[in-house]
């Protein structure tokens, strides 16, 4: 016997016992996104490395430490996508979707980062998100937040999530604020940890994200961006808050909520939860008007958010318990000779043809009827459809109720689909 091969660390199988919650989430996303006018886009999981270097930045942890990057056979540097916003922008530019056009897109799929695996964070993880191009102003930012809030409500996890928002102002506001931060933290250079010292040179806003407990008092004393934005930026943010308030969305102003990349502007937001432990952020987004031209396209406003599937699934389990896949409606039990299975399967296919959505688990083992009924009971099916020599000869099926005290009944195959539809509300 050969040596067993296990999955790669941080890349997990999604087993049948766990797939019910995935289907619930995926179905909710597919129903909700189009109801707001968003169309699905699917991008490759492998992109040219330069796409992420130019969008995320070469001096970020993602690009420097976490990306799965490799040369292909012709020498190009390729990477497994660590996020999908850049890929959406690349696709929009490449296919001419963004020029003088409004695009409202959504996506769902696997992403990859080589980081330390922990609860809610994996090396192959999954995200779903929404991106809008061609719309400026706070109204679309509010819609993106309302869309995410609708998803949380539909999933039954809205009570577990709190919204935090902030404004980054426009480009001039950010430049002015960046200079102010550098001046402030320069005075405390000896108290900064190594990571923050590095950020001071290249990305001082990210110092505000530091979780180092020894630096929190210093960070709390740093200047607040919202106190330095222009009147126009403040009006933009005020209108966003007005829309949220009129729609009953409660939120907290978090002046330390930032995006460290220069293409972000105006609104940024996060949905956070204490139920996730260290991985407290379930969804994050904001406006990124500078990203499209940074990736070679004509200037186009953009805004969006991304959410971690695994983290949302943790919240669903916390709120609703284990979500199981639906049991079959019925279990096919074949009686008599093994040769009867051919006729039984032919009848089963007719039932599938006529009763759409009917879930029928078929026993193809050729085992004893007693053994088949044991498997039928274990499957969770409500009825067993019994087909033996007599049923095949009469073109009929026998229905035995497994969960209710009802007598067994026999119906003609031509009438069986109507009986099943009525029984299961199909």
What labels describe this entry?
8-stranded mixed β-sheet; alpha+beta; about 425 residues; 16 strands; 15 helices; single chain; 5-stranded mixed β-sheet
Describe the model.
This protein has 426 residues and is α+β, with helices and mostly antiparallel strands. The protein is built from 15 helices and 16 strands. It has helices spanning 19-35, 49-55, 61-66, 85-94, 138-155, 171-186, 194-202, 216-220, 231-246, 291-294, 309-320, 340-354, 369-379, 389-394, 413-424, and strands at residues 39-40, 46-48, 69-71, 77-80, 103-112, 124-133, 162-167, 251-253, 265-272, 281-287, 302-308, 330-334, 360-362, 383-387, 396-401, 409-412. Strands 1-5-6-11-10-9-7-8 form an 8-stranded mixed beta sheet. It has a 5-stranded mixed beta sheet with strand order 13-12-14-15-16, sandwiched between helices. α5 runs parallel beside α9 (231-246) and α12 crosses α15 (413-424). It starts with 18 loop residues before the first helix and ends with a helix. The relative contact order is 0.11. The mean pLDDT is 89.
Strand content: 15-25%
> Gap between N and C termini, in Å?
48 Å
Largest sheet: 8 strands, mixed
Number of extended strands: 16
Tally of individual helices: 15
Strand order of the largest sheet: 1-5-6-11-10-9-7-8
Q: Taking all residues together, what is the mean pLDDT?
A: 89
Contiguous runs where pLDDT drops below 50 for at least 5 residues: none
Can you tell me the overall shape? elongated
Report helical residue fraction. Answer: 25-40%
């Amino acid at each position: 016997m050969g040596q067993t091969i296990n999955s790669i660390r941080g890349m997990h199988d999604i087993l049948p016992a766990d797939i019910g919650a995935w289907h619930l989430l995926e179905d909710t996303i597919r129903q909700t996104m189009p109801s707001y006018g968003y169309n699905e886009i699917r991008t490759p999981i492998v992109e040219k490395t330069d796409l992420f270097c130019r969008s995320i930045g070469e001096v970020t942890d993602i690009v420097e430490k976490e990306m799965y990057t490799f040369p292909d056979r012709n020498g190009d540097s390729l990477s497994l996508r660590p996020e999908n916003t850049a890929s959406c922008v690349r696709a929009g530019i490449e296919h001419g979707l963004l020029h003088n056009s409004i695009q409202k897109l959504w996506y769902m799929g696997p992403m990859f980062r080589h980081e330390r695996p922990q609860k809610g964070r994996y090396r192959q993880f999954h995200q779903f998100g929404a991106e809008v191009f061609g719309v400026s102003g706070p109204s679309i930012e509010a819609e993106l937040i309302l869309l995410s809030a609708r998803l949380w409500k539909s999933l039954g996890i809205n009570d577990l999530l709190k919204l935090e928002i902030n404004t980054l102002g426009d480009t001039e506001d950010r430049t002015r604020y960046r200079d102010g931060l550098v001046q402030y933290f320069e005075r405390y250079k000896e108290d900064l940890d190594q990571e923050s010292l590095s950020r001071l040179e290249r990305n001082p806003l990210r110092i505000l994200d530091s979780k180092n407990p020894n630096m929190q008092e210093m960070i709390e004393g740093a200047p607040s961006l919202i106190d330095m934005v222009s009147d126009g930026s403040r009006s933009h943010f005020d209108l966003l808050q007005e829309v949220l308030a009129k729609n009953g969305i409660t939120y907290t102003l978090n002046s330390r909520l930032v995006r460290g990349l220069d293409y972000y502007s105006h609104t940024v937001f996060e949905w956070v939860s204490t139920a996730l432990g260290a991985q407290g952020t379930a969804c994050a987004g904001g406006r990124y008007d500078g990203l499209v031209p940074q990736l070679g396209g004509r200037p186009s406003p953009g805004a969006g958010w991304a959410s971690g599937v695994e983290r949302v699934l943790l919240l669903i389990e916390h709120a609703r318990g284990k979500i199981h896949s639906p049991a079959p409606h019925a279990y096919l039990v074949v009686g008599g000779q093994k040769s009867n299975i051919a006729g039984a399967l032919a009848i089963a296919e007719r039932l599938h043809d006529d009763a759409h959505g009917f879930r029928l688990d078929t026993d193809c083992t050729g085992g004893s009827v007693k053994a088949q009924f044991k498997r039928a009971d274990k499957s969770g099916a409500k009825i067993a459809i019994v087909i033996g020599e007599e049923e095949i000869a009469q073109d009929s099926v026998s229905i035995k109720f497994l969960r209710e005290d009802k007598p067994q009944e026999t119906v003609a195959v031509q009438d069986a689909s109507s009986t099943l539809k009525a029984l299961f509300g199909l």
